[in-house]
């Protein structure tokens, strides 16, 4: 049997980045994402003995999602703050032949930013399913449990999110070619 502090430490190390990145995508604000992450970590500590290790991922992501929804509901007017994703979270697409080419580096950075912006403009329901599947790596069934929606809805929302992103990014591509 693992002692509570050790079990908590393992869960924090395993999920803190997933909690934060999901919160950031959902809330579009670093301070709110920090707050949600902190609240989820507190809830993990307080409820550590109430969930099984096998269901930890679902419980943690469902708790994160619910807190994000609470934060979004509390906002009476859409926030007009600008936001940036932490540079350390940026994914780099390596190109061995041209990795030192500043033109390619700039191009990949611009594409990455456009993709992140497009994801953030998705409607809440589509965005949450897309982020959980594509970024957090959850399976359909896990997403269904986290968001408390039917499995078929997960599939439909993911398909719709992908189509919306394709449409938006296609228009970006046609402007830049």
Explain what this protein looks like in three dimensions.
With 177 residues, the protein is an all-alpha fold. It folds into two domains: 1-89, Orthogonal Bundle (Rna Polymerase Sigma Factor, Chain: A); 93-177, Arc Repressor Mutant, subunit A. The chain has seven helices and no strands. It has helices at residues 4-27, 30-46, 56-74, 102-121, 124-135, 140-147, 151-175. α5 (124-135) packs across α7 (151-175). The model is unreliable at 76-96 (pLDDT under 50).
Keywords:
177 residues; mainly alpha; Rna Polymerase Sigma Factor, Chain: A; 7 helices
Distance between the termini: 59 Å
Secondary structure: number of strands: 0
Under CATH, the topology of the largest domain can be stated as Rna Polymerase Sigma Factor, Chain: A
Structural class: mainly alpha
The CATH class of the largest domain is identified as Mainly Alpha
Shape: globular
Helical percent range?
over 70%
Integer-rounded radius of gyration: 18 Å
Classified in CATH, the superfamily of the largest domain is RNA polymerase sigma factor, region 2, helix turn helix motif
CATH architecture of the largest domain: Orthogonal Bundle
Low-confidence stretches: 76-96
Proportion of beta-strand residues = under 5%
The total count of helices amounts to: 7
What summary fits the major beta sheet?
none
Order of helices and strands: HHHHHHH
Mean pLDDT: 80
Task: State the domain count.
Answer: 2
């Amino acid at each position: 049997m693992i002692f509570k502090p050790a079990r908590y430490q393992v869960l924090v190390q395993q999920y803190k980045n997933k909690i934060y990145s999901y919160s950031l995508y959902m809330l579009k604000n670093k301070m709110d994402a920090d707050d949600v992450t902190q609240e989820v970590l507190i809830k993990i500590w307080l409820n550590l003995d109430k969930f099984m290790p096998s269901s930890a991922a679902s419980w943690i992501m469902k708790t994160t999602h619910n807190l994000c929804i609470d934060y979004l509901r509390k906002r009476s007017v859409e926030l007009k703050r600008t936001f940036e994703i932490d540079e350390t979270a940026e994914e780099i697409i390596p190109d061995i032949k041209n990795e030192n080419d500043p033109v390619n580096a700039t191009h990949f950075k611009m594409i990455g930013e456009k993709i992140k912006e497009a994801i953030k403009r998705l409607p809440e329901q589509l965005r949450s399913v897309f982020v959980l599947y594509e970024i957090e790596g959850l399976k359909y069934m896990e997403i269904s449990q986290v968001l408390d929606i039917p499995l078929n809805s997960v599939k439909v929302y993911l398909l719709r999110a992908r189509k919306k992103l394709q449409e938006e990014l296609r228009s970006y591509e046609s402007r830049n070619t």
